[in-house]
Amino acid sequence: MKIPKRKLFLLIIFAYVAFSLYAAYNVFFSTKAISRVHRVVNKDTAPQDEWNPWENEQVDYNSALNRNREAFKQYLDKNKINKNKPKRYKVQVWGKAAIGLYLWEHVLEGSLNPTDKIAQWREGELQCGKVDYSFYTGPAVVQGHVPLDMNSLVLVLNGREQQKVSYSTRWLEHVQALVHSRTVSHVAVVLLGNEQCNNDWIGPYLKRNGGFVDLLFVVYDSPWVNDKDVFQWPLGVATYRQFPLVRPNAQLITSNRPYSCNFLGTVYKNSSRETLLQVLSESGLDKECITSAREKWLPQETTDSLQRYQAALAQSELTLCPVGFNTECYRIYEACSYGSVPVVEDVQTPGTCASGSTAPLRLLKAAGAPFIFISDWKELPSILERERAMSQEQKVDRRRRLLEWYGSFRQQMKERFTEVIEDAFFKNA
């Protein structure tokens, strides 16, 4: 069938108009959605000049996120390290009695600044076990003027006589106020006790009696010692008379000592010290020993008297240690410092100190002290006779063992002191 030309022309015109309208609609009115999948394009094929109005904000956000992630990672690493690192504790020591210097320099092996022994203010720091100690001593260390940046305190006091007790009581009352104000939480006392063991004045301050003192380390054979909250402490050397810390050396061990024994001290009327000198004189042994007796006790040494005393210890094989007001005396520890074997009068003195098979000197005996114990000075001639029969090698070996024991004894006291402090103050920390 033949289509008329006019109709064919109109059909072409209609198709062209329809196509034009469809194209115009797609260009100006279509809102075709773009999925998230289509938004992710390959970096290599994406248009390089496409502008994103949120691009800078996105970069800042990502940078901050990375920084936070890195900081959190470092925090976790730091906490991991801290968990593995042993925790340390701080304890302050106030030395308000001369035995504080024996505790600090001879037992804990700490140093003091300044080194001048008569300085008004001296201080030091050291680490022992898990504890960091700081120490303050001297006349200028007064109540309310000691820097206190920790809540655990050790107070070193003298309770030997009434005047000292009054002074010590004022310090205890000061510390009690610090406890009540919650400035201090834990308190220990190192006490030079009474030679007859009459220490009742400090009893009310102990925590077991309703007080605030957690621990008491007391000198002499107190019947209170239970190794729970009351511990026995060694008297040590006479630091109040400037007796020094003696470091062992080869000369001290191997030298040829010209004297068998020595005794320099006060001789009281009707005491065993009179018996001692009488035995030496009657047996003619006084020529083998260095002796110097005085009738009155002197609280301080002169430079000359201290040097003579130290020389006597260093030149004698034995140091004679008769009892005074107590069996335990400074002379015992001073003889050990020079490797001169203490010959100790092993008898109980009057008072309320503990008695029994191990008393007196139970702390030293428990530590295996290599001393010569006697009950009567009439035994001395036979002891000196045995000395004459010993060879130089035997004497040197004995000296070495004594010095090693004394060093070990102080180390044991150091470790025990710190262990007790850690357990009582910081066990539940």
TrEMBL record:
<dbReference type="GO" id="GO:0120053">
    <property type="term" value="F:ribitol beta-1,4-xylosyltransferase activity"/>
</dbReference>
<dbReference type="GO" id="GO:0035269">
    <property type="term" value="P:protein O-linked glycosylation via mannose"/>
</dbReference>
<dbReference type="Pfam" id="PF24785">
    <property type="entry name" value="RXYLT1_C"/>
</dbReference>
<dbReference type="InterPro" id="IPR057538">
    <property type="entry name" value="RXYLT1_C"/>
</dbReference>
<dbReference type="GO" id="GO:0005794">
    <property type="term" value="C:Golgi apparatus"/>
</dbReference>
<dbReference type="Pfam" id="PF24786">
    <property type="entry name" value="RXYLT1_N"/>
</dbReference>
<feature type="domain" description="RXYLT1 C-terminal">
    <location>
        <begin position="240"/>
        <end position="426"/>
    </location>
</feature>
<protein>
    <recommendedName>
        <fullName>Ribitol xylosyltransferase 1</fullName>
    </recommendedName>
</protein>
<dbReference type="InterPro" id="IPR055286">
    <property type="entry name" value="RXYLT1-like"/>
</dbReference>
<feature type="domain" description="RXYLT1 N-terminal">
    <location>
        <begin position="91"/>
        <end position="234"/>
    </location>
</feature>
<dbReference type="InterPro" id="IPR057539">
    <property type="entry name" value="RXYLT1_N"/>
</dbReference>
